[in-house]
Amino acid sequence: MNSRFHTAHSAVLLLCLTAWLCAAPKAGAQLHPAEIRTLYPLCAAPGTTTRVTISGMSLRDVRQVLVDRPGLSIKILPSDASKLPAPALDSDGNPDVVAEFTVTKEAMPGVYTFRLVSPTGLSNLGKFVVGRELPPLEAKEPNDRPEQAQTVPLPIAIDGRLHEIGDQDNFAVTLEAGKTFVAEVTAAAADSPLDSRLVLRDANGREIASNDNFGGPDALLVFPVPKSGHYVLTLSSSVGSGDPNQVYHLSLGYLPILTAVYPASVERSKPTALQPVGINLPEGKSLEWQPKADAAVSSQPFCLPTPMGPSNPKPLLLSDLPTLTPNEPGHDRLHATPVPVPGSVNGRFYRADGKPGSVTDFYKFHAEAKKRYVIEAQCAALGSRADPVLTLFDDTGKQLEENDDSNGTPDSRIERTFDQAGDFTLRVKEVKGFTGPDYVYRLVVQEAPPPGFTLATETRARVVGRGDSVPFEIEVTRDRWDGPVTLSVADLPQGVTASACRVPEGVGRGLLVLTAAKDAPLGAFPLHIVGTAQISGQTVQRTLDRASDWVWKGGDRTTSGVPANMIQCAVVNPFEIAPSTDANALTVQRGQSVKFTVRVERRMAYAKPITLRVMGLPDGVTAEEATLPPDKQEMELEIKANAEARLGAFPIAVTALAAPSESVQLDRVTPPLTLTVAEAPKPAGK
To answer: 494: closest CA among 460, 468, 520?
Structure first.
């Protein structure tokens, strides 16, 4: 169902509460955490309200929705409880959630993320795409063979799914000579497992165009039409897979496709002449663009207005550095283009003369002695298909360093301290020699940030039960400094507290434990984990900037990066099992051991073994994993310290690992304990 709907801009974090938000949830949460697996449909146009079915696990009684930015609001529609399957241990019957996704007319195209809050906790990230303003249509079966192709008008947006292995959907279109036909798949961009492939056939069944990947798993087929007539487009899985989760959104027509914007990086708040690059774009060399004055963002999406509606978005980076866009950079070391330090340069692997052949650009900069510099060739952040390789030379032409990929991206990065001041040369080239007007890149040269640290974590269910605790192991990564870091949690809601943690010098991980009071209000809250340290006489604070979700799909645990603005936790009903200890502090001497008792309250009919593990142990201190039998409530654990164990006081906790099925493993944790590692007393007389 689609209807026009207008609304004012919302806050950056939207809380869409259902009518039953304040209703008292039933006691006894399920063991499986809330999990989003499939949305259908997964895309909508600006200015519409679309009914979306959300499938997954443990989504019964969803009562709250968190959305990452303005432009999209989500309203959960009430369900008829009498028609829902009866819940059981580790299964709430897996009922679907039906919601109205409302996209404002002003919403920028792109991927929006959201989470659902249910009595079992906070879900993994769901993704919904704001797409083109096209008439909607649903794929109709049977359309598995070209002769069964569903006839569709142009332009059109089709929602469908490949239901089973080997399934494919066929669509009949009439194309006009002299125009460029575009078929654009949105699937993987919204976390659909579909790896799409498109094939276009003429009236005789002859394959005349195809595409598998276009800068990613989603297919994009572009076909200049030589002859008017009837054609058949086939959408399939490139690996022959298929199941009801493999949903897609297919846009067809003579659509405007923006493949690049040049320059792709602009100085913040400075008007810039942009050159759009792509297909079915209006003629014209450039247009003036004024970025919004927003110091909080590092990029803004850019869509080109066209007679066929706005194009797809491309990111424009907003830079606080002096930015150059040379007409033609130097193509050898002797004619290298000067770069200010700090500064950035817009470039592209493209021959202005239109001739074939690879492009190599050279730049030069001056470095001061004993200073550390960061040099980056960026493409991924620009949405560019280019894969740069970066090479550094001294003033004699001697190669000092080279880098291809860094930080899990195709981009290149060199970080180096120069012993002596001097002029140095950089070479930037496309690793495979590809060229084109859309193979854009950005080169950045600047001093490295001062010594410091970053924080990261991963979590299983992102929840804390009333009266219970949840652990967060925080990874501390130091850069050119190795002092202690104090971890804390800021802005906690009423009824939630956090243990303190000091990560000593040389230790890379610390343990924080969140605890909810028995009467803590239910609901989600932002998780603001802060690290504080003294570096070079200055107090330095860093917030948690990386987190990973633990999501179970098909029996496998997978992790995915979470945007910092959606790192959340939630207070839920009391957990199914609750571990505790007989002590809140322990002391162990080097070369000795200490024993303590762990008790597990089984609040549900969970008659399975429970694995006990000790978290947060310092170097040189160990504790063997133990299994609590189904008929037992407590067990003794032993902590051992070797002769060189790290001295000091450390927060530790014991996790009780519940594994009700092969696809689910959840940690429930004791309140934190303080473990003190002490020197062993010297023998008498020595």
So the answer is: 520
* Residues 620, 413: Cα–Cα separation, whole Å: 36
Q: Indicate the length of the chain as a whole number.
A: 686
Q: Is beta strand 229-237 parallel, antiparallel or unpaired with respect to 168-175?
A: antiparallel
Establish how many alpha carbons lie within 13 A of residue 17's alpha carbon, considering only the half-sphere containing its beta carbon: 8
pLDDT digits (tens, 9 = 90+) for 299-332: 888 889 898 888 999 999 999 999 999 988 999 9
- Whether residue 118 contacts residue 34, with contact meaning beta carbons closer than 8 Å, is answered with yes
State how far the Cα of 475 lies from the Cα of 456, in Å rounded to an integer: 5
Question: In one letter, which amino acid is 570?
Answer: A
User: For 207, how many CA atoms within 13 A lie in the half-sphere containing its CB?
Assistant: 7
Q: Which residues in the chain land under pLDDT 70? A: 1-31, 87-93, 285, 293-296, 354-357, 460-461, 550-564, 660-665, 685-686
Map out the domains of the chain with their CATH numbers: 2-130 (2.60.40.10), 136-253 (2.60.120.380), 323-371+379-440 (2.60.120.380), 452-572 (2.60.40.10), 577-678 (2.60.40.10)
DSSP 168-195: EEEEEEEE-TTSEEEEEEESGGGT-S--
**pTM listed for this prediction:** 0.86
The pair phi, psi for residue 608, each rounded to 5°, is -135, 160
Contacts for 183 with CB less than 8 Å, ≥ 6 apart: 198, 200, 219, 220, 221, 223, 233, 250, 251, 252
SS3 380: helix
Residues 4-57 have pLDDT tens digits of: 333 333 333 333 333 333 333 344 445 677 888 899 999 999 999 999 999 988
DSSP 7-36: -----SSEEEE-TTTTSPPPSS--SSPPEE
Are the beta carbons of 40 and 52 closer than 8 angstroms? yes
DSSP class of 620: T
485 is written with which tokens? 């870091």
Residues with Cβ < 8 Å from 88, sequence gap 6 or more? none
